[in-house]
């Protein structure tokens, strides 16, 4: 008996199977191709994306593996409109990072006091959310929403497998039209914008069966297999690596970086709002999560790679340069706001900055300062989360491409003072999607039983250097935080 997992990410779509008894099966990866039109707007082609997913499924099931359930995770805010009757796309799939709907986000922000909307959604105004994208589409074509339904990326793949229109709580919560305090669509808010409430699909708990496979024989899937929307990719990955205690925080490091922690479900008020963090529904029943991030973490490293040579430095050159840097803090403050700042001071207009440069600083110092700056930002989020939750965070579990750079990981441990764990797990989101579907579809009785899927993973541990931590702490508290208030006022 196997679990099939699907992960629709910003750069890749993946499929893989896991034996319900803990065996690790085959994984297939396909590129998620982002297209850019003449206006500079980015989009995914839904048919192309479905073709990639279908191809990946065929590859991993080529040997005739039987499947007991399917779990699908995806990037959170990416979505499209499809025709409710025919199932045909009404629009391209708009990525979470495309900024075309900034004017709509500003309009929405004027329609309800920020704290009032936050207490219902757990979110601060942003161009990323599904509602802003829908209003942008409606501005281009006033008729486009009639008879249509909005689906997130995972929802769309689930629809192609089952013919059922549905979403899960974690993805619904990223539309800005869903009340996380009531686990229901905010119908009066949706109507306020001249939209029909059936524009959004039924929302169910993560991992719950939404339908069964039909006419999927060409993929290697029999009819009648339960399909579940596992939900938000970061939340699924956190489950996979065991970041399911308040003292343990999940750190996903890619082009963007996200810090996420679990918390009991609770009402949100002014304290949570002022934290700048966003909040949502966890895949585990009875729990929520807090989240903060930096849009240009790994992106800052890529930017600096391109600046330090006529051709971008190779990753081997990056590691070699970092090895030449003087141990301990550089004394340079880098603010990684190439795409604006995130929590705890969200500001899409904030500008990046390098402060504290001296003539003796070298390329190695500049490169190391970039890593320090991204780690300082994560430290800001960690400390904010501690204050707002009243929990001491002593462990970080990190996954993603950035974990391959051990210099970076040691800097993160030194700045935070936390033990940093690096699971040797290539596909955390896929594994989390399988676990979530396994629990929701009744294959496992709970997270403890489902954790059989992750017990074989090896984990590397990095401990902070006490002397470096003390030095970084002084610089953070006496320099980075104070100067950051000035930097974020520059737009």
Automatic annotation (TrEMBL):
Q: Which residues form the Carbohydrate kinase FGGY N-terminal domain?
A: 4-239
- Keywords, alphabetical: Kinase, Transferase
Tell me where in this chain the Carbohydrate kinase FGGY C-terminal domain is found: 252-439
GO BP term, pick one: carbohydrate metabolic process
GO MF, one example: kinase activity
InterPro entries in the record: ATPase_NBD (IPR043129), Carb_kinase_FGGY (IPR000577), Carb_kinase_FGGY_CS (IPR018483), FGGY_C (IPR018485), FGGY_Carb_Kinase (IPR050406), FGGY_N (IPR018484)
Please give the family membership noted in the entry. Answer: Belongs to the FGGY kinase family.
PANTHER family xref list: L-XYLULOSE_3-KETO-L-GULONATE KINASE, SUGAR KINASE
| Protein name (Swiss-Prot/TrEMBL) | Xylulokinase
Q: Which organism is it from?
A: Lihuaxuella thermophila
């Amino acid at each position: 008996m196997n679990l099939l997992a699907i992960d629709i990410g910003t750069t890749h779509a993946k499929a893989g199977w896991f034996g319900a008894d803990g065996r690790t099966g085959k994984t297939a990866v396909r590129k998620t191709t982002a297209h850019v039109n003449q206006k500079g707007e980015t989009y995914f082609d839904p048919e192309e994306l479905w073709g990639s997913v279908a191809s990946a499924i065929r590859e991993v099931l080529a040997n005739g593996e039987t499947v007991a359930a399917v779990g699908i995770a995806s990037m959170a805010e990416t979505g499209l409109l499809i025709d409710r009757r025919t199932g045909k796309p009404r629009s391209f799939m708009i990525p979470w990072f495309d900024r075309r709907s900034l004017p709509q986000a500003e309009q929405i922000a004027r329609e309800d006091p920020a704290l009032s909307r936050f207490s219902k959604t757990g979110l601060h105004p942003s161009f990323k959310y599904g509602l802003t994208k829908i209003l942008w589409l409606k501005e281009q074509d006033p008729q486009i929403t009639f008879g249509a339904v909005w689906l997130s990326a995972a929802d769309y793949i689930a629809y192609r497998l089952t013919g059922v229109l549905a979403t899960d709580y974690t993805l619904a919560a990223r539309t800005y039209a869903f009340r996380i305090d009531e686990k229901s669509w905010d119908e009066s808010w949706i109507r306020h914008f001249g939209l029909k409430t059936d524009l959004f699909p039924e929302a169910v708990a993560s991992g719950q069966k939404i339908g069964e496979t039909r006419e999927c024989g060409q993929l290697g899937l029999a009819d009648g297999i339960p399909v579940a929307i596992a939900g938000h990719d970061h939340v699924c990955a956190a489950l996979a690596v065991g970041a399911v205690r308040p003292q343990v925080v999940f750190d996903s490091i890619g082009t963007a970086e996200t810090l996420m922690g679990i918390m009991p479900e609770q009402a949100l008020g002014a304290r949570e709002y002022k934290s700048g963090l966003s909040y949502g529904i966890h895949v585990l029943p009875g729990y929520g999560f807090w989240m903060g991030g930096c849009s240009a973490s790994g992106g800052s490293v890529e930017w600096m790679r391109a600046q330090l040579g006529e051709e971008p430095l190779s990753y081997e050159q990056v590691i070699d340069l970092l090895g030449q840097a003087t141990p301990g803090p550089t004394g340079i403050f880098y603010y990684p706001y190439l795409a604006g700042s995130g929590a705890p001071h969200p500001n899409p207009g904030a500008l990046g900055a390098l402060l504290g440069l001296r003539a003796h600083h070298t390329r190695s110092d500049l490169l190391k300062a970039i890593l320090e700056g991204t780690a300082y930002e994560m430290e800001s989020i960690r400390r904010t989360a501690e204050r707002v939750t009243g929990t001491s965070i002593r462990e970080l579990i990190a996954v993603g491409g950035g974990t391959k750079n051990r210099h970076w990981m040691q800097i993160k441990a030194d700045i935070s003072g936390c033990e940093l764990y690096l699971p040797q797990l290539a596909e955390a989101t896929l594994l989390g999607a399988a676990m979530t579907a396994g629990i929701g579809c009744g294959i496992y009785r709970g997270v403890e039983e489902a954790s059989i899927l992750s017990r074989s993973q090896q984990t590397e541990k990095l401990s902070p250097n006490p002397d470096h931590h003390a030095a970084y702490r002084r610089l953070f508290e006496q320099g980075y935080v104070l100067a950051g208030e000035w930097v974020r006022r520059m737009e």
